[in-house]
Amino acid sequence: AFARVLMSSDRGRSWTVAETPLPANASTGIFGLAFRDPLNGVAVGGNYQAPGDSSSNVLRTRDGGVSWSLVGRSRPNGVRYGAVYARAGDGWALVAVGPSGWGYSADDGATWTFLDNLSYNTVAAAPSGLVWAAGVDGRIARFTPPVTTP
User: Fold this and answer.
1) How many CA atoms lie within 13 A of 88 on its CB side?
2) Residue 133: which of 70, 84, 75 has the closest Cα?
3) How many Cβ atoms sit within 10 Å of the Cβ of residue 4?
4) Nearest to 65 by CA among 111, 20, 106
5) What is the C-alpha to C-alpha distance for residues 4 and 17, in angstroms, rounded to an integer?
6) In angstroms, rounded to a whole number, what is the distance separating the alpha carbons of residues 53 and 109?
7) 89: which residues sit within 8 A by CB, 6+ positions away?
8) pTM of the entire structure?
9) Can you give the pLDDT at residue 52?
10) Confidence of residue 147 (pLDDT cuts 50, 70, 90)
11) 3-class DSSP assignment, residue 138
12) What is d(CA 150, CA 146) in angstroms, rounded to the nearest whole number?
């Protein structure tokens, strides 16, 4: 079985399904989506019962979610629970979090830079590009991605 993405263009009155190449089962699948514009986005996930697994867990779409392709694995390795795009100069940084830590990518998830190995469950970005992550035991962290160019 493979993970699927459900999409609606009419505020939930009707839905379409996009199949992805990410394996899915009771503990494995997609846990976060992020789009930087209407066409370009990523899905992140993995196996929450194997939080440090090194399997590919980052998918990319360039057609608004109609089709998805595996682009690699996050850094640090392991399941990702959330992702967000943040402004980084004239470009974008993709930041993803999970129980094994967090990292960022300047190329839509193909390569990653490790930030730390503390556990985070959710992530959000301000219009300024400042990224906030929250995790267990009240942990809160912030990060400003380095300036990138498109």
Assistant:
1) 23
2) 84
3) 15
4) 20
5) 7
6) 17
7) 147, 148, 149
8) 0.93
9) 83
10) confident
11) helix
12) 13
